[in-house]
Design goal:
68 residues; mainly beta; two-stranded antiparallel sheet; 0% helix
Length: 68
């Protein structure tokens, strides 16, 4: 089996995962995705209207409105 057209792969050495152009990474419900100290599974799904929080609007990351 060839990996020539694989869009998601582990770089040699095993310490880096690459999502190439055309690839997609899906995190299933109940799973967690963390980038450093940022827990992406905890992003709110409605606008907290504080002008600084990142929130998820139907799959699109947005910065909260000012609420004021």
């Amino acid at each position: 089996m060839s990996d020539a057209n694989t869009k998601i792969y582990r770089k040699p050495g095993g310490n880096e995962l690459v999502v190439a152009a055309g690839g997609k990474l899906t995190v299933e419900p109940g799973a967690q995705l963390k980038v450093g100290a940022l827990d992406l599974s905890a992003i709110p799904k409605s606008d907290p209207a504080d002008g600084k929080t990142i929130w998820l609007d139907n799959g699109v990351l947005k910065v909260a409105g000012s609420g004021g």
